[in-house]
Amino acid sequence: MVALxxxxxxxxxxxxxxxxxxxxxxxxxxxxxxxAKPGARSEYITVYGGLEFGLGVFFLxxxxxxxxxxxxxxxxxxxxxxxxxWRLGTFLAIEGITGFPRLAFGLEAVLCVLALVLWLRRx
Length: 123
Hints:
This protein has helices spanning 2-22, 24-31, 38-64, 69-93, 100-121. By secondary structure, it is mostly helical. The chain has one domain (2-121).
């Protein structure tokens, strides 16, 4: 089950990296970003493309290497817990958040809970 979790995350982040790199205007618009300057577009492609690519590759390596699976699972747990906590904080502090952030929260919460369950069952 851990390998499946890691494979899913690898695919998710590799697809997101590709999407954000090839179609930055469309993906940025989906989350409410606007590129005021060329540097903003560069930063967006670097963080949303490059960082997500790196995460995808790491999850892929962990899925392929059984000795790394626990590390990949721990990364997923820490990363999604941080995303869920911070996103909840923004929902409480900022009025009117709709659309993509709400959808992302749902996916992140499911992946966080799944990582926690898998982490607790690992031994």
